[in-house]
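Fold this sequence, please.
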Amino acid sequence: MVKVKVEVEVSRQSIADCLCAGFEGGIGYWAKIVSYVTPPAGSDLHVGLYDDHEVYPYYHYPMCEAGGGVVLGDAELDGDPFALTVQNAGADCTGLVTLDYASVLRGLALLAEEQPRHFTALTSGDSDAETGDVLIQLAVFGHVVFG
């Protein structure tokens, strides 16, 4: 068997679409959006826009811009801090977690490496709520914790 590493370009719109599916139908059983981190002035906030009108309600997908993010809380506690502790790259993650640009990039790398079916769905424009859920979990926790 031969192992080959390949570099793949993924559009930010494809990422935003996948995250949208995750927010709207994937993560609702474990998390909810509790706040946003606005990207710095001058950021390219075109993701999620169509003809200068916002298509998605998630503040132009700030997690797709350096410096922006979405803060997630435990859905069962109505957005309060997470009741459980999960391991994230060797450190405990309790409370609220932030999905930001850096974590989305890490999540994409993990998705490609550990969940090739979902990565293929994302890159082919066929991502769904499950793929979005998996991407978000990989991004904020480093592995799939729920579901």
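The two ends are 31 Å apart (CA to CA). The chain has a mean pLDDT of 77.
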